[in-house]
Design a protein that fits this description.
- This protein has 341 residues and is an alpha+beta fold.
- The protein has helices at 2-12, 15-32, 44-66, 69-102, 109-130, 135-141, 143-152, 154-169, 209-214, 241-252, 290-307, 324-340; strands at 177-180, 183-190, 194-199, 204-208, 217-219, 227-235, 265-271, 276-284.
- The strands form two sheets. Strands 4-3-2-1-5 form a five-stranded antiparallel beta sheet.
- It is 57% helix and 15% strand.
- The protein has three domains: 2-141, no CATH class; 159-219, Roll (SH3 type barrels), CATH 2.30.30; 224-341, Alpha-Beta Plaits, CATH 3.30.70.
Length: 341
């Protein structure tokens, strides 16, 4: 490893290093265009690092020619760090997004980032050791520095371990529809700190990973994509329940998006004050369009009830107001009572 780092340092001091960095930058730009639009943002950081490496490399080469050795030492070190970060991103793009993707092997984003970070840390430590620095001894001998770093990264580490747990137990996965609190959305990415959800309204919600572990989360896509929906509706007491149930079940059959298996059914739910409450239950397999399916089901229920003469009663409330004569009699009675006293 140290010999490899020494070779990188030598190359970085010449125009060859700048040329190699430029070629890597062009290659990354070309390969980035082969990715889907939603995955291109993943390599943006690597592009920035390669741009920095090109700038630092050219600046270091010029500083070396001018004899500014102190400036050259700083710029060459920054050039090497940027080149390492950008090059590992390029290698990760080739391995994970091109090779493994063609082999239909999906690597979670958090595991990919862990591998990328581990490689960068190992190379950076080797560079520091080659320069005569021992960062590990600096951290281990400074208890105060270790405590400060631990406190500062407490929430980040909590979310990072939560992200690893989410990818390990596989209770939640990319593409699953979940409900966390009052939020319903599809998981698009599980990262180190947070999980990204696309809501039905097209909004992107960022939720901390620890919240998905600590709170109750309903996975609407597991164990399969079939999900049951309920429609509650009340009909007049004069309608026989078995007729009402049959009308409701027939109304929802052949509705686009409603599954034939399991078949829809209807139950008598409650005897309310002004109506008998029924619950029509049906199954769907495309939760992304559940709002449109629910709207179509309710529309068909209304038309079926109208065709079959089923009345949906309104709640009736009787209010008794006192008449004017009653109020006058009450006032006169009060006056007579007071005069006798």
């Amino acid at each position: 490893m140290l010999k490899f780092v020494e070779q990188l340092l030598v190359i970085g001091q010449t125009w060859t290093g700048a040329t190699a960095t430029l070629l890597a930058l062009v290659t990354l730009v070309v390969l980035r265009r082969l990715l889907p639009a939603e995955q291109r943002q993943r390599v943006t950081l690597s592009l920035f690092f390669l741009c920095f490496a090109l700038f630092f490399g050219l600046s270091a080469t010029v500083a070396l020619k001018l004899g500014a050795y102190t400036v050259w030492a700083v710029l060459s070190f920054l050039d090497l760090l940027s080149l390492v970060c950008g090059s590992t991103g390029l290698v990760g793009l080739v391995v994970f997004d091109l090779v493994l993707h063609r082999l239909q092997v999906r690597v979670p984003a958090i595991l990919r980032d862990l591998i990328h970070l581990s490689v960068v840390v190992v190379i950076v430590l080797a560079i520091l050791y080659q320069r005569g620095l021992d960062p590990l001894s600096l951290v281990t001998t400074s208890a105060v520095l270790t405590a400060v770093i631990g406190l500062a990264l407490q929430s980040t580490l909590t979310n990072a371990f939560a992200g690893l747990a989410l990818n390990t137990d596989r209770t939640l996965g990319i593409g699953d529809w979940v409900q966390a609190g009052d939020r319903i959305g599809r998981i698009v990415e599980i990262k180190w700190r947070s999980t990204s959800l696309w809501t039905e309204d097209g909004d992107l919600v960022i939720m901390p990973n620890s919240r998905l572990l600590d709170a109750e989360v309903q996975n609407l896509s597991r164990p399969d994509d079939v999900h049951r929906l309920w429609v509650k509706i009340g009909f007049h007491y004069r309608h026989p329940p078995h007729e009402v149930k049959q009308v409701l079940v027939d109304a929802v059959r052949n509705t686009p998006g409603v599954c034939t298996e399991p078949a829809p059914d209807c139950i008598l739910l409650d005897f309310a004050d002004s109506a008998i409450i029924y619950a029509l239950r049906y199954w769907i397999s495309d939760f992304a369009h559940h709002t449109a399916i629910e709207s179509e089901v309710r529309t068909r229920i209304w038309y079926a009830a109208r065709r079959n003469g089923l009345e949906i009663p309104f709640p009736i409330r009787t209010i008794v107001l006192p008449t004017i004569n009653t109020e006058v009699a009450a006032v006169e009675h009060n006056h007579r009572t007071e005069s006798k006293e």
